[in-house]
From TrEMBL:
<dbReference type="InterPro" id="IPR018197">
    <property type="entry name" value="Glycerate_kinase_RE-like"/>
</dbReference>
<comment type="similarity">
    <text>Belongs to the glycerate kinase type-1 family.</text>
</comment>
<dbReference type="InterPro" id="IPR018193">
    <property type="entry name" value="Glyc_kinase_flavodox-like_fold"/>
</dbReference>
<dbReference type="GO" id="GO:0008887">
    <property type="term" value="F:glycerate kinase activity"/>
</dbReference>
<keyword id="KW-0808">Transferase</keyword>
<dbReference type="Pfam" id="PF02595">
    <property type="entry name" value="Gly_kinase"/>
</dbReference>
<keyword id="KW-0418">Kinase</keyword>
<dbReference type="InterPro" id="IPR036129">
    <property type="entry name" value="Glycerate_kinase_sf"/>
</dbReference>
<protein>
    <submittedName>
        <fullName>Glycerate kinase</fullName>
        <ecNumber>2.7.1.31</ecNumber>
    </submittedName>
</protein>
<dbReference type="InterPro" id="IPR004381">
    <property type="entry name" value="Glycerate_kinase"/>
</dbReference>
């Protein structure tokens, strides 16, 4: 039996690569004749570069840059010299997992460090930049990245504003006169994991800022700031980011850079699945095992797992979903391709214990799956 193991990460627990390893380890203990193909995936957040590099064959370039709180951190991007292309994963320099929970506050954080990586990639010779914007700790509308590239965001009195979320509301004008020509000559593509707009009830602040440390008052301030930034961008460049699908991704980075740098916004999931030739792999697959840390309503909003399931359904490949937390079971059962869905937790557990025991829990689940699959015959 050919089994394709293709999960996303379990956030705060294990990478997609590690999940593949422990599931395979368990499956082979009870189904040693199974042939497992491992395909760790990502939707633009943590682990995206590893998922892509198996096909790109680039090199990781490390730099010391600023983390979301302007502290020094070592971060990397993927450079493909033969294509003069760089892939920058925003989570590397501006990710939420870089900060302990008590330090997460997207009013104070900035995407500046990601801009430093982009700047270095352009100086190295990149003519095209792919930026993936999942898993961020920021809600600055792209101010941080743009500031690192030479843009200045000014208050009414001409003061240069620090590029943080709380200062979005104070932006009165944008000065791009100090941006190097090579920045504007670079082709930018933003790969997003969501389709949310720049601001509003379904925008960057109201949907994502709470998990990035903002309280209700902070969320309202951030949303008003994004509305202000949208007006300033439209006044300067003639484009309102609110009109662009996915502009709220990365705390508004997608919308801000789409206007400032003429960046194109694409679906990270579709791009990653295409690069990894998932359609071809499914042709040779009897069953697909996939999953992520939490399967909930957001899973089905065009994200990686939902798109993967659609491809499996088109190829008539049955799917097993393995996750940390299984919510919205009714929605899962409506997925025609899903044969079986399960949490790795078989009994109540604290979050701390669940995270610590994730490797063994995945291996245990793999053993159960192997036992079950060894008794099933697929065409």
């Amino acid at each position: 039996m050919n089994i394709l193991i293709a999960p996303d990460k379990f956030k705060d627990a294990l990478s997609a690569t590690e999940i593949c390893h422990f599931l395979q380890k368990g499956i082979l203990q009870t189904f040693p004749k199974a042939h497992c193909t491992l395909l760790p995936l990502a939707d633009g957040g943590e682990g995206t570069l590893e998922s892509l590099n198996s096909n790109f064959k680039g090199e990781f370039i490390y730099q010391t840059v600023q983390n979301p709180l302007f502290e020094a951190v070592s971060a990397s991007y993927l450079y493909i010299p033969q294509n003069q292309t760089a892939v920058v994963e925003m989570a590397r320099a501006s990710g939420i997992e870089l900060l302990i929970p008590t330090k997460r506050n997207c009013l104070k954080t900035s995407s500046f460090g990601t801009g430093q990586l982009i700047k270095e990639a352009i100086q190295k010779g990149a003519k095209e930049i792919f930026l993936t914007v999942g898993g961020t700790a920021t809600n600055d509308g792209g101010m941080g990245i743009a500031s690192a590239l030479g843009f200045r965001f000014l208050a009414n009195d001409g003061t240069v504003l620090q590029a943080t979320g709380e200062n979005l509301i104070a932006v009165a004008s944008i000065d791009g006169s100090q941006v190097p020509a090579e920045v504007f000559n670079t082709k930018f593509t933003i790969a997003t994991d969501v389709t949310n707009p720049f601001f509003g009830e379904s925008g960057a602040a109201y949907v994502f800022a709470k998990q990035k440390g903002a309280n209700e008052e902070g969320i309202q301030l951030l949303d008003k700031g994004l509305q202000n930034m949208a007006q300033v961008l439209e006044r300067h460049f003639g484009i309102n980011p609110q009109t662009l699908v996915g502009s709220g991704a990365g705390g508004g980075v997608a919308g801000g850079l789409a206007v400032l740098l003429n960046a194109n916004i694409i679906s990270a999931a579709s791009w990653i699945l295409e690069i990894n030739r998932v359609d071809d792999l499914l042709e040779k697959t009897n069953i697909l095992v996939t999953g992520e840390g939490k399967v909930d309503s957001q899973t089905w909003d065009g994200k990686l797992i939902s798109q993967l399931l659609s491809k499996a359904e088109a190829k008539a490949v049955p799917v097993i979903i393995v996750c940390g937390t299984l919510q919205d079971v009714e929605i899962v059962t409506k997925q025609k391709s899903v044969l079986y869905a399960t949490s790795i937790l078989q009994e109540p557990s604290t979050l701390e214990n669940a995270l610590a025991n994730t490797p063994q829990l995945l291996e245990n689940q793999g053993m159960l799956l192997g036992k079950m699959l060894s008794s099933i015959s697929f065409k």
